[in-house]
């Protein structure tokens, strides 16, 4: 049994050493009275710089003493566009009349304004430095026995503890040797042998009864004692002898000749390596003895000393050169001491904010749909030209869209495709009926659309779709239409049942030619097909998937809701009763390649890169993103589209018209209700016609008096909308009769008007997009928009004839996809009132406050989409406040509400992008108005001083970074744009602003030092944000004033504060001390000595004063030192108090000191200019680190162990400084002492 140590005997029970050390530590600390550090007023920094200006500027090392002149600047960064030209129309700002629209256009067309800090890379901790070579590429690892994991069983035969593991294993026969048996009578026993390497590099051969090594070893042979291995066939077949140094032998035998050869080769290699290592050891021993003898012969002087006494000049020159070369060679490969610090080695970047990027269009999962061919089973040769093959006998038209079965909605606009060959398209050229412009078949003019020939955009076959939330239940649906002819069943029957395809094809083609010439502009539904898009929720395309069969369209299931039900039925093919039309639909889905070119937006604006050849153009299909905050993003481009969806017409009970069965709906967009008003050319046309037309028709259902519709009409809205803009719906009865014997006059009567409906686009000045139910009038009187409400319809004076008693017969739905118009009532009214005030209207007291309060009810998705526009307008209102403080406070409260909502949705990165790139402090309009930073500081202080609204206070504390960043940027732009940066710092800002900053600081202090337990997250956030702001103020303002603010804030803490508050304090100090010009801020010059000793004297003085200890183990710094060198004096003074506290607080203080030393050790701005000073600085840093570390060992430890730890630490640091230990080994041993 091992002897028990005396120290262990004194314990009440084993294992309580840590508890005893902790109790002793508490007893030691309780014997000291922690006094609050004395408040030392900092010096007037600006005055000192002014008084010593000549001395500083004439100093060769003045870079260490002064701030750079061009430290802050403003840069204008051009907005990066993905399109060839801007999405904003050239005359958009002139046409716009609404304030909201104007601000949106300005936002999308303006460049970014960024405040640049020249040395910002040096304003964080060491991880943010531009020098990235913190760690050497290869650091030799030091392995100690204590670091290795050994098993409790220390038996040398245990294979688990062997260094090299098992080298060879197998069955052998071993001779049982004893003194009573002769060699020829040896008994061999079969054993399983393991040849292994031990931790010290030696080899051992263990034998066991079988392969299981868990049992006890039956014997072992140490190969270090063997000097040869030879065969001995006379003793036994395949036998060999292992000879040892003491002339003893081990006899073994293998079972086959091959196994014997393998064992012999392996054993000979091991014995040879052992012999070579033994010879080398003897040689080294002889050389060391010779060196010892030579060192004792009085050669104590080195070569350089002997050469210095020589009178020969060549030898003296040689000696000096040799000494210089030795110095250089000693520095080769030498690493910075701090490279071996664990935190530097780890380089954890988790706590660093990522780079802030400007706003950009949200990139969803994108893929391209390539439409290649569509053919049915009735084919014929329609062209006389030999190169044309068999084609469809009549034209068919496709529209593709994405449907989300999981969320039960349509998630993309329609992509219209015309895959008809030229011979089939020619069937529509004879259409002479009066219809929509661009749909009659005549060849439209080849004008340019955004620089692209219109002819290149007529027949686009590639569509780029995007999906924000990909999953397996998203389907691509293809609807097929044909020219109106009759019922769907009648038109599909020839394709489904035909015994003679050739004869049937000619018959169908003959009828189709007549139909196309008469009804070519009207469409009817024919069929549909679908296919899945994604394999999984990660967005992997199902590229190998194929479309379903072409199903016949059911005339009673046309709506999008019905389509979603059909998709659910399509997923269960065993239960489906859908009728199939034989057809081949060749549509390919592919990922967008990296070199994807010739693509245009949904507004036909070319996207980079775009080739001039304009071949095979692709068009982006608009995604209908769900109105959910997590899918929203701030708008960055101009877009102004309106999607109109006619849904249902109930005409079964009307008695006005004799015939109203084959009902076609014509949609127009007008800006007047006068009799001679014309529709606007702003509706996107179908393939083959003009890109923009004046009207659009929905598909017609044959003989249906209550038709449903599924069509999507896309409209390009004008920039300015007024009360007269409206949608006009005209209903026609289309005659489908084809009578070749009829007169031409009767043939011309294709359509008969059977009603009108209209809907104004604006209601109370904003676009309303809810589902609408509209009455239908049999006529269209002038001024019909006055009949919009129910009361107006009852007035007899109006010459309007309502169908079915003005009941709401027509159902429509409108979807707005615009980045310049909002549907939110509260946002619209706020901008409307601001526009009235700007126009000169008299402000009503309290009216603006009312609209500001209403903004709290704004929808979160609207808030995010128009985030830059809203925030800039709020800051503009804040700046132009003239007399009402309530307006400024409520404006700040709205800002706070928006900021908190963005954080709750995890979209705070948009706020950072806004502050860095978009926010600009505009000049106030009034002469007495204050700048943004002046008003904002007052409002923040007012909110924090309120005692009732704790919710707002807590939000302001939690998200204070946004307001402090806005203050900093406003201050910077004010100095640079007003050219006040050239003024003395004391004259840059008015006294009122300094007083407001001081009031804000005093308002924050109690929320940190008193309410920290109640609101830990909020208090930590405001502590860090305030530190960053004050750090920026050191660049802008009077540095002596900022020093006083820092002093006042730190004075709010106490030595008896709990651990959390101490962490706040040191986090605050570390942030401040990370200023990019920390050394000039500390004035590294002596104030009492005649000579300016710069950094070396400064740090040595700091170390000397810091390590002077009185009998109470207190560290003290002179008041004069702390006053002259304010930041470092405050940091060291607070660290000296922290070293008398518990382990966690000591660790926090020393970590701040160490990180600051690491940062300056790697700061490449000073490494080449003042290398000799930095060498001394690093030596002083090591001494400071040593003494603070050694002093920290004095606590929480009983007397005997404490003395041992301190002694070991001091000797260790001496050896590091004497280069007897490497830095890595030294730091490794330091950690071992800490564990001790």
From TrEMBL:
Domain C2 DOCK-type stretches: 639-817
InterPro entries (alphabetical): C2_Dock-D, C2_DOCK-type_domain, C2_domain_sf, DOCK, DOCK_C/D_N, PH-like_dom_sf, PH_domain
GO biological process, one term: small GTPase-mediated signal transduction
PROSITE patterns named among the record's database cross-references: C2_DOCK (PS51650), PH_DOMAIN (PS50003)
Pfam families, per the entry: DOCK-C2, DOCK_C-D_N, PH
GO molecular function, one term: guanyl-nucleotide exchange factor activity
Residues of the PH domain: 165-272
Annotated region (Disordered), positions in chain: 282-303
SUPFAM superfamilies listed in its UniProt record: PH domain-like
Domain of life per record: Eukaryota
Protein family (similarity comment): Belongs to the DOCK family.
Name assigned to this protein: Dedicator of cytokinesis 11
């Amino acid at each position: 049994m091992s002897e028990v140590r005396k120290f262990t005997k004194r314990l009440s029970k084993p294992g309580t050493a840590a508890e005893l050390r902790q109790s002793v530590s508490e007893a030691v600390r309780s014997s000291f009275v922690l006094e609050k550090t004395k408040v030392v007023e900092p010096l007037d920094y600006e005055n000192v710089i002014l008084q010593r200006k000549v001395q500083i500027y004439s100093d060769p090392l003045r870079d260490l003493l002064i701030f750079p002149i061009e430290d802050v600047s403003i840069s204008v960064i051009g907005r990066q566009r993905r399109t060839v030209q801007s999405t904003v129309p050239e005359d958009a700002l002139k046409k716009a009349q609404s304030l909201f629209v104007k601000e949106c256009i300005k936002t999308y067309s303006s460049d970014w304004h960024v405040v640049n800090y020249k040395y910002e890379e040096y304003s964080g901790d060491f991880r943010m430095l531009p020098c990235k070579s913190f760690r050497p590429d290869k650091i030799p690892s030091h392995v100690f026995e204590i670091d290795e994991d050994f098993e409790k069983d220390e038996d040398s035969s245990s294979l688990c503890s062997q260094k090299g593991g098992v080298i060879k294993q197998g069955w052998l026969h071993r001779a049982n040797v004893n003194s009573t048996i002769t060699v020829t009578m040896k008994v061999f026993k079969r054993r399983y042998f393991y040849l292994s390497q031990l931790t010290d590099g030696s080899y051992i051969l263990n034998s066991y009864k079988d392969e299981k090594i868990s049992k006890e070893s039956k014997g072992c042979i140490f190969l270090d004692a063997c000097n040869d291995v030879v065969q001995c066939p006379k003793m036994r077949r395949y036998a060999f002898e292992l000879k040892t140094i003491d002339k003893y032998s081990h006899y073994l035998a293998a079972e086959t000749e091959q196994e014997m050869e393998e064992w012999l080769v392996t054993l000979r290699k091991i014995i040879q390596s052992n012999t070579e290592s033994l010879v080398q050891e003897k040689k080294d021993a002889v050389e060391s003895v010779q060196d010892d003898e030579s060192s004792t012969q009085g050669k104590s002087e080195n070569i350089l000393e002997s050469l210095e006494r020589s009178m020969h000049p060549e030898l003296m020159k040689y000696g000096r050169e040799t000494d210089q070369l030795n110095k250089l060679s000693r520095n080769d490969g030498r690493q910075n001491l701090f490279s071996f610090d664990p935190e530097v080695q780890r380089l954890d970047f988790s706590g660093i904010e990522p780079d802030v990027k400007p706003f950009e269009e949200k990139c969803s999962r994108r893929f391209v749909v390539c439409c290649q061919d569509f053919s049915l089973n009735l084919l014929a040769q329609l062209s006389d030209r030999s190169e044309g093959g068999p084609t469809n006998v009549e034209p068919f038209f496709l529209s593709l869209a994405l449907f989300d079965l999981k969320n039960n909605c349509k998630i993309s606009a329609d992509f219209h495709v015309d895959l008809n060959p030229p011979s089939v398209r020619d069937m529509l050229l004879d259409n002479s009926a009066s219809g929509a412009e661009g749909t009659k078949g005549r060849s439209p003019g080849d004008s340019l659309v955004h620089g692209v020939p219109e002819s290149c955009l007529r027949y686009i076959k590639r569509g780029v779709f995007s999906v924000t939330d990909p999953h397996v239940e998203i389907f691509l649906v293809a609807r097929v239409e044909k020219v109106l002819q009759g019922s769907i069943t009648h038109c599909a029957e020839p394709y489904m049942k035909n015994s003679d395809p050739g004869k049937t094809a000619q018959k169908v083609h003959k009828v189709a030619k007549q139909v196309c010439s008469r009804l070519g502009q009207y469409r009817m539904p024919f069929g549909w097909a679908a296919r899945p898009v994604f394999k999984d929720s990660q967005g992997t395309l199902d590229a190998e998937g194929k479309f379903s069969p072409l199903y016949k369209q059911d005339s009673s299931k046309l709506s999008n809701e019905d389509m979603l039900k059909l998709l659910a039925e399509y997923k269960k093919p065993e239960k489906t009763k859908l009728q199939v039309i034989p057809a081949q639909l060749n549509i390919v889905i592919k990922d967008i390649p990296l070199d994807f070119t010739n693509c245009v937006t949904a507004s036909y604006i070319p996207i980079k890169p775009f080739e001039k050849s304009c071949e095979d153009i692709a068009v982006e299909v608009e995604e209908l993103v769900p109105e959910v905050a997590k899918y929203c993003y701030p708008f960055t481009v101009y877009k102004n589209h309106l999607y109109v969806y006619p849904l249902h017409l109930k005409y079964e009970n009307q008695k006005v018209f004799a015939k109203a069965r084959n009902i076609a709906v014509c949609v127009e967009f007008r800006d007047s209700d006068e009799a001679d008003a014309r529709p606007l050319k702003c509706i996107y046309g179908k393939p083959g016609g003009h890109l923009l037309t004046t009207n659009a028709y929905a598909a017609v259902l044959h003989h249906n008096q209550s038709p449903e519709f599924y069509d999507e009409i896309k409209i390009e809205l004008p920039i300015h909308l007024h009360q007269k803009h409206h949608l006009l719906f005209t209903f026609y009865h289309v005659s489908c009769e084809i009578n070749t014997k009829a007169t031409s006059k009767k043939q011309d009567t294709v359509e008969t008007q059977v009603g009108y409906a209209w809907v104004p686009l604006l209601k109370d000045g904003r676009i309303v997009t809810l589902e609408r139910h509209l009455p239908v009038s049999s006529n269209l009187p002038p001024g019909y928009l006055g009949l919009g409400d129910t009361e107006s319809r009852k007035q007899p004076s109006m010459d309007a004839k309502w169908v079915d008693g003005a009941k709401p017969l027509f159902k429509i739905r409108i979807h707005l996809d615009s980045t310049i118009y909002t549907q939110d009532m509260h946002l619209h009214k706020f901008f409307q009132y601001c526009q009235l005030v700007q126009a000169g209207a008299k402000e009503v007291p309290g009216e603006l406050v009312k609209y500001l309060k209403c903004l709290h009810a704004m929808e979160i998705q609207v808030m995010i989409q128009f985030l830059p526009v809203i925030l800039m307008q709020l800051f503009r209102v804040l700046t132009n406040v003239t007399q009402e403080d309530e307006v400024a406070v409520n404006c700040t409260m709205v800002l706070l509400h928006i900021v908190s909502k963005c954080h709750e949705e995890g979209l705070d990165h948009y706020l950072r992008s806004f502050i860095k790139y978009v926010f600009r402090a505009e000049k106030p309009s009034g002469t007495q108005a204050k700048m943004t930073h002046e008003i904002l500081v007052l409002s923040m202080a007012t909110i924090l001083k309120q005692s009732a609204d704790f919710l707002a206070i807590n939000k302001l504390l939690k998200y204070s970074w946004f307001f402090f960043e806005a203050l900093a940027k406003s201050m910077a732009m004010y100095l640079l744009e007003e050219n006040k940066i050239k003024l003395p710092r004391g004259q840059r800002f008015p006294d009122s602003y300094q007083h407001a900053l001081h009031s804000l600081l005093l308002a924050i202090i109690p929320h940190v030092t008193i309410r920290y337990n109640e609101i830990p997250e909020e208090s930590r956030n405001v502590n860090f944000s305030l530190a960053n702001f004050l750090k920026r103020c050191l660049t802008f303002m009077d540095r002596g004033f900022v020093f006083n603010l820092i002093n006042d804030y730190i004075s709010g803490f106490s030595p008896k504060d709990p651990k959390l508050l101490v962490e706040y304090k040191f986090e605050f100090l570390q942030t401040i001390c990370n200023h990019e010009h920390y050394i000039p801020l500390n004035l590294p010059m002596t104030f009492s000595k005649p000579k300016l000793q710069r950094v070396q004297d400064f740090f040595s003085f700091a170390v000397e004063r810091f390590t002077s200890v009185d009998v109470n183990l207190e560290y003290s710094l002179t008041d004069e030192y702390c006053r002259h060198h304010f930041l470092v004096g405050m940091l060291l003074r607070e660290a000296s108090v922290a070293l008398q506290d518990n382990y966690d607080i000591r660790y926090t203080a020393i970590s701040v000191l160490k990180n600051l030393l690491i940062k300056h050790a790697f700061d490449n701005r000073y490494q080449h200019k003042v290398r000799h000073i930095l060498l001394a600085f690093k030596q002083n840093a090591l001494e400071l680190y040593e003494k603070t570390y050694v002093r920290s060992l004095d606590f929480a430890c009983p007397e005997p162990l404490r003395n041992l730890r301190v002694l070991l630490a001091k000797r260790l640091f001496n050896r590091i400084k004497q280069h007897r230990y490497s830095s890595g080994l030294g730091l490794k041993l330091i950690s071992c002492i800490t564990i001790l």
